[in-house]
Design brief:
Blueprint (H helix, E strand, L loop, with lengths): L6 E2 L10 H7 L1 H4 L10 H20 L5 H4 E4 L2 H16 L5 E5 L4 H12 L3 E5 L9 H7 L4 E5 L13 H11 L2 E5 L18 E5 L10 E5 L25 H39 L3 E3 L10 E6 L4 H10 L2 E2 L15 H5 L4 H5 L1 E5 L6 H21 L9
Parallel strand pairs: 1-11, 3-4, 3-5, 5-6, 6-7
Antiparallel strand pairs: 2-8, 7-8, 9-10, 10-12
The structure holds 4'-deoxy-4'-aminopyridoxal-5'-phosphate.
Length: about 400
């Protein structure tokens, strides 16, 4: 199907790059292509662009000293690796206990497994039925030797926003370093690393309509890490490898555009989201909202439907030119139900009946209408075919 005819409702998995970002990147691939480590003028252009980008991105999250605190990486997965492995390795003399939440992105879960294999002790904080981390349960897990807490700003599947400022306050009082994976939240929720007592923060470029392959780890001045990529010593020795200046300039441009458009985009997407949630819950019997009813990302509506499987829904939507998801793209090729949905207390069959709608900068009212018009027929047809269907549900 032609791209223009597809209603794209899977912004959490991938976003298009803003055309203005591509324009900003072009000179850094064609004319200003120098290596930021070179001492000649062409190198200077890259160094200047790199430092200006650090400032733009640092200011976006209210970093105190962007020049020192913004580390460029290849993306969110690498930033998460640098934060957790880099800090745990550097700090292991002080303690070996790390806390994450049950609903972290798969990258954090797998890094935690790696740490466990390497002699660290990892605790996972459970969440309530809405996906919110409980402060009391977090407090219970803190013990002598706890060096790091890593909790996401918002969940990339169900959209629940965590009480980050409260967790940050607790971590600071206890002298524990606090890392936040802000990938799902960036551009949708204002982030202030100083006010929220965040010591390390992961950002990704594509999640704000910048190019893929670029990310940031904010590291508060004074927090010491061991590098996980060793080489020429770029990025204050924390992330060796020649910087992708064009990509970084693209991310900084994406931040500038996001800053300008954020308020308007939040209002617009929230209206779409609320319309979708209201209509689906009213029109489709035995449908349920996953995630927090209020503290949720403006662009996220996540449902489960009794008696049917998300995958079969996706295929039916695909036939109708609607691109949608059942959850995290990172684990969509496994048959396992989403660990996030299981953490909410859902049964496997309930988790398998889920559908995630995520919207973004180019979502239109007609995309939303296409989804809402197609859904009742798809649900009815699949329920008619499903051996699980109870008569009253149809
Ligand atoms: N953290 C979160 C919350 C994510 O949603 C993702 C995936 N977009 C990542 C980390 C990893 O991002 P990437 O695959 O771009 O490295």
């Amino acid at each position: 199907m032609e791209k223009d005819k597809i209603a794209y409702l899977d912004y959490q998995s991938a976003k298009p790059v803003d055309p203005e970002v591509i324009e900003a990147m072009k000179p850094y691939m064609l004319e200003k292509f120098g290596n930021a480590s070179s001492l000649h003028e062409v190198g200077d252009w890259s160094t200047e662009a790199l430092e200006a980008s650090r400032k733009t991105i640092g200011n976006f999250i209210n970093a105190k000293d962007p020049g020192e605190e913004i580390i460029f990486t290849s993306g969110a997965t690498e930033s998460n690796n640098l934060a957790l492995i880099g800090y745990a390795t550097r700090t292991k003399q002080k303690g070996k206990h790390v806390i994450i939440s049950e609903v972290e992105h798969i990258s954090i879960h797998n890094i935690a497994k790696y740490l466990q294999k390497n002699g660290f002790d990892v605790s996972k904080v459970p969440v309530d039925f809405n996906g919110t981390v409980s402060l009391d349960k977090l407090k219970e897990r803190i013990k002598p030797g706890t060096i790091l807490i890593s909790i996401q700003y918002a969940n990339n599947e169900i959209g629940t926003i965590q009480p980050i400022a409260e967790i940050g306050k607790l971590a600071r009082e206890k002298g524990i370093i606090f890392h936040v994976d802000a990938v799902a939240a960036e551009g949708q929720v204002p982030i202030d690393v100083q006010k929220e007592n965040i010591d390390m923060l992961t950002l990704s470029s594509n999640d704000i309509y910048g190019p893929r392959g670029v990310g940031v780890l904010y590291v508060r001045k004074g927090v010491l890490l061991s590098p996980i990529i060793i080489g020429g010593g770029q990025e204050r020795g924390l992330r060796s490898g020649t910087e992708d200046v064009a990509g970084i300039v693209g991310m900084a441009k994406a931040v500038e555009i996001t800053k300008q458009k954020m308020d308007e985009e939040i209002t617009r997407l929230q209206e779409f989201r609320d319309k979708i949630i209201k209509t689906v819950l009213e029109k489709i019997p035995r449908s349920h909202l996953n995630g927090h009813p209020v503290n949720r990302l403006p662009n996220n509506a996540h449902f489960r439907f009794d008696f049917i499987e998300g995958e079969s829904m996706l295929l039916s939507f695909k036939e109708k030119g609607i691109a949608i998801s059942t959850g995290s793209a990172c684990s969509s090729k496994t048959l396992e139900p989403s660990h996030t949905l299981i953490s909410l207390g859902l049964l496997h069959e309930e988790a398998h009946g889920s559908l995630e709608v995520t919207m973004g900068r180019w979502t239109t009212a007609s995309d939303i209408d296409a989804f809402l018009e197609a859904l009742p027929g798809i649900v009815k047809r699949l329920r008619d075919l499903s051996p699980l269907t109870k008569r009253e549900a149809c």
